[in-house]
Write a structure and sequence with these properties.
alpha+beta; eight-stranded mixed β-sheet; globular
Length: 201
């Protein structure tokens, strides 16, 4: 997760999930399992969302009351490439900007509904391949969200949908653009003085 810190906003860029890569052992309502998302599943989900004009929300800690942005905003791009699901978005929420400055952002998560899957038993462990899914949201996690597992499941009763959550802790790489801009005039001044002194030699 790379975070560019600006004067009143941050730009977050990183991979929410790597496709075709097996997860660690997770626990769900049916017991332990290992999971991977099929290549192309996110792309197809995003295409369906676009076709039916459904946004993918960017939330803080899966809190639907704290929507930071969405794919309806031009500054938010969620795509699948050859590595996996990638999100780049600009966030103007003052509290989240402050969290970034304090190094309190911990990673990514996403909420989805499985539409098609293949399950295989290998040495007594269920291996689950998600072939088609509905992508509901991606979440930026702060450092209060340290999951016991790298995947958990929750049930949303209002819609009677079973939404699964996958959390990924990540290293935050912060780049403070405001600090870089503040240094620039000093660098220009130093360069002008250098050439002036050199011309007098």
């Amino acid at each position: 997760m790379k975070v560019e810190i600006r004067s009143d906003s941050i730009v977050i860029d990183g991979y929410v999930n790597a496709v075709e890569r097996e997860s660690k052992l997770m626990r769900g309502k049916d017991g332990a399992f290992v999971e991977k998302i099929s290549e192309g599943a996110f792309s197809r989900a995003l295409q369906r969302n676009k076709k039916f004009n459904r946004e993918v929300r960017v939330l803080l800690n899966h809190n639907y009351g704290r929507q930071l942005t969405s794919t309806n905003e031009s500054t938010t791009k969620i795509t699948e490439d050859n590595i996996g699901l990638r999100c780049r978005c600009e966030v103007r929420d003052a509290e989240v900007v402050q969290m970034a400055k304090e190094g309190k952002l911990a990673g990514w998560s996403f909420g989805f509904v499985a539409l098609s899957e293949k399950n295989t038993d290998i040495d007594g462990i269920r291996h689950r391949e998600i072939r088609e899914l509905e992508l509901r949201e991606v979440s930026v996690l702060d450092n209060t969200r340290i999951p016991a597992y790298n995947g958990t499941s929750i049930e949303i009763r209002e819609t009677e949908d079973f939404i699964e959550i996958r959390e990924i802790l990540d290293e935050m790489e912060a780049v403070d653009e405001t600090a870089e801009k503040e240094k620039q005039p000093l660098n220009q001044e130093f360069e002008q003085r250098f050439w002036k002194i050199r011309a007098n030699l």
